[in-house]
Structure formats: C-alpha cells, structure tokens
TrEMBL record:
PANTHER family: AB HYDROLASE-1 DOMAIN-CONTAINING PROTEIN-RELATED, ESTERASE_LIPASE_THIOESTERASE DOMAIN-CONTAINING PROTEIN. It comes from Actinacidiphila acidipaludis. This is Alpha/beta hydrolase. GO terms for molecular function: hydrolase activity. Pfam families: Abhydrolase_6.
Length: 262
C-alpha cells in the first residue's frame, strides 16, 4: 500500500486532527454507499472497524437506477442525520455521492473507494472505456425488465461463474460465491447517465485506488483522483476492496474524519 498526500496537508496537521478527535471532538457520522454488483453488507468489515474506533456508520441502500435518482435517495438519508458527515462511495457509488453531496452543508469530506469521480457530462461507462484494462463487459449477464408503466430496460449482473475472478479475486472463494448470489444488479441506463454535478470540486476528498481492479481500470482511477486533487492511497486489491481490505478502507475514512476534526 502506498499513500500520496497533497502538499497542503502536513504530518503535523494530521497529528493535530487525530488529537482533536481523541479528546472529545464530535466525531462525524460515516455514510457508506455501495456500488453495482454488491450490497450494503459489502461494508460490514469496514463498519466493524469504524465502530471499534468510536464512529457511527450507516450503510445506505443504493437503488442502482441512475445517478440523479440514486443521489436523491442518499441525500434524504444525509439530510436526516445531525452533525458532520463523511460520505463514502464504492465504484458506481462514487458517481452517486458526487451528486448527493452538492449543497449538503453537513457533508464535510468525501471518500472514494475504487470509485468513479465524474465531471458533469461524463458517465461511468464513458470513463471506464476511456482507459484500457476493464474486463467487465465480457463477464456481464444482462436481464431485460419491464416496469409497471410499460417502460423497459436492462439490469446487469456479473455471471456467477465469473464473479470471483472479475470482482473479488482476493476474497476467499466461498465468500465470493455468497457475494455473487446476493449481488444487486444495476440498470444499464445508470452506467450511461451523465453526471450533472461534482461535489469534489468544493468538498475535500480521499481516494482508495485499487491497483488490481478489473472493473474500473487503475489508470482511470488515478486520472480521476488526480483531477479531483484527492488524498490518494493505493492498495494492491481487487474491486471488492471493502471486503478484502476493510482495514485500509477504514483507515482512509478515519483520515478524512480527522481532517474534519482538525
């Protein structure tokens, strides 16, 4: 694991922030937003570690229908909470938090975990395709659906036989099989929908870049993190880093929380 912190944040500042959090400072609530092909339980290991450190953590149920509507759903939860919030998004959840946090005065930090940080006008699909390395298209299982109003669409799953290698190569096979069986599909239209806002332009951000990721190319992750001026931590992990390396993810979230306290 390597870490790259912008020059504007010194070790002394980080130490001071940690001391503040440890001496009665109000700790923020951590809101965790999962991405496609996963569920809220993908955050269980991270939540356990955050609770051990005295943080309240809430895993939002991400509908996976489209960035705008999903952001509205997450925003309703954020608005319900009192006090400062660290908003965390994995994968497509990064697109969601980038819109959900716009104008939310209680969101003080954003944390992206193997995630998208789109600019207005960009989609998850376009950002993935801009850089080589994703093998996701060949692992997908599309399922057509029809809404009650007669409109149609396509839900995307990862095939069960491809899930372990594609999504969670560093997770034990038995655990990956359970993840495959309980995965939440994403509407294909959600990956094609263009972003309209980018909260990372005004809210400080942290980014866990997953260097063994087969869903979002590492080059794409690095590009987006650099563009956003994020505090970057790189980890040798698959796309399922919140499951395989919850310790790393929790540590980065705490870095963001300490920044708020400082």
């Amino acid at each position: 694991m390597t870490e790259n912190t912008p020059a504007s944040t010194s070790s002394a500042q980080a130490t001071e922030g940690a001391a503040t959090a440890g001496h009665g400072g109000a700790k923020p609530t951590v809101v965790l937003v999962h991405g496609a092909f996963a569920g809220s339980d993908s955050w269980n290991g991270v939540i356990a570690r955050l609770r051990d450190r005295g943080y309240r953590a809430v895993a939002a149920a991400n509908p996976l229908r489209g960035p705008a509507s999903d952001a509205a759903s997450v925003r309703s939860l954020v608005d319900h909470l009192e006090g400062p919030v660290v908003l965390v998004g994995h994968s497509y959840g990064g697109s969601v938090i980038s819109q959900a946090a716009v104008g939310a005065e209680n969101v003080k930090a954003l944390v992206y975990v193997g995630a998208f940080l789109p600019e207005p006008g960009e989609s998850a699909l376009e950002l993935t395709g801009r850089f080589p390395g994703s093998t996701l298209p060949g692992a997908l299982d599309p399922v057509p659906f029809t809404q009650t109003d007669g409109s149609t669409g396509t839900d995307l799953y990862i095939r069960a036989d491809a899930y372990h290698h594609q999504f969670a190569a560093d997770v034990p096979a038995d655990a990956a099989a359970l993840m495959a069986a309980t995965q939440r599909p994403i509407a294909q239209a959600a990956l094609e929908e263009k972003a309209t806002d980018a909260a990372w332009t005004s809210i400080p951000s942290w980014d866990v870049v997953t260097t063994e990721d087969l869903n979002i190319p590492v080059a794409a992750q690095r590009f987006m993190a650099e563009r956003a001026g994020s505090h970057v931590t790189e980890v040798d992990a698959s796309h399922a880093v919140s499951v395989s390396r919850p310790d790393v993810v929790a540590e980065v979230i705490e870095q963001a929380a300490r920044h708020i306290a400082g």
